Amino acid sequence: MSMWLSLVGSEYKIGFVQAGPVRTRYLEAGSRGKPVLIFLHGSGGYLEAYLKNIVAHAEHFHVFAIDMVGHGYSDKPDYPYQPRNYVQHVCDFMDAMRLDRAHISGESLGGWVAARMASTRPERVGKIVLNTAAGSHFDPERSARFHMLSINAAREPNRDNIRKRLEWLMLDPSIVTEEMVEMRYRVYTQPGFAKAMENIVCLHTPEFRMPNLLTKEELATVAAPALVLWTSHDPGSTVEVGQRLAAALPNSRFVVMDQCGHWPQFEDADNFNRTQIEFLLN
């Protein structure tokens, strides 16, 4: 089944906006006047990661999903993308769309960005959802594997390499469809994307990851209510990593979704949608 079929019969918009220096691709759904929710994808991803979540959330929120700087079909300036760069891009996007404040739901890298934004730009943030979030630990072996799969998929963007990169995300690799492979193939075969991927995965090298990690001291300053959503089979980290992240946040709730890998919003969309909406509304 096509991921885009999740949006059939609903009202939404795909567009581009100039967010500071970055021409930015976004999806928008829901009504102005409702609380704003912004979805942030993971490393090497794009807004399509949330196609199964848009309609359910648009009943309650003014929803946006974006291609972060360097990703998808947004601009790809040539410098190593660090959390502060992503935070600035999200803030520039909010300014361009005239959004003063938003809930931020981020998966993996997106969760890292959400947490950093909550600590450094608290006036722009409502609640945060840290979905299998990166940024609170460094596992050299796991990071090296992720770095290799990502670089290979971008330097040699054949469909087999791209399928391997997508299958890494899932507990059940068989749910990776031909459409998903083709979608990522088209993104990864854009001119200059191999260089962009090097800038994206810099955070999986000690040189850039260690200085940017979320410390206990930083997390202790986060006033935003946080849902730390983990999975039973996350290939990027253990449940204990999620527990430690939640414990470091002053106002957090910790939930583990069973039988999911790194993309619970896709692998078990109904459960993810129900859990996140309940948190954001209450």
Can you walk me through this structure?
The structure is a single chain. The protein has helices at 54-58, 83-96, 109-120, 140-155, 159-167, 178-188, 193-200, 206-212, 216-219, 239-248, 264-267, 269-281, and strands at 12-19, 22-29, 36-40, 62-66, 102-107, 125-131, 226-231, 252-257. The protein is of the alpha/beta class. The chain has one domain (3-139, 215-281): Rossmann fold. It has an eight-stranded mixed β-sheet with strand order 1-2-4-3-5-6-7-8, with helices on both faces. β7, α10 and β8 form a beta-alpha-beta unit. The radius of gyration is 17 Å and the shape is globular. The mean pLDDT is 96.
CATH class: Alpha Beta
Average pLDDT score: 96
Percent of residues in helices comes to 40-55%
Instruction: Assess the beta-strand content as a share of residues.
Output: 15-25%
SS element count, helices: 12
Major sheet: size, sense and barrel closure?
Answer: 8 strands, mixed
Uncertain regions: pLDDT < 50 for 5+ in a row?
none
Q: Count the beta strands.
A: 8
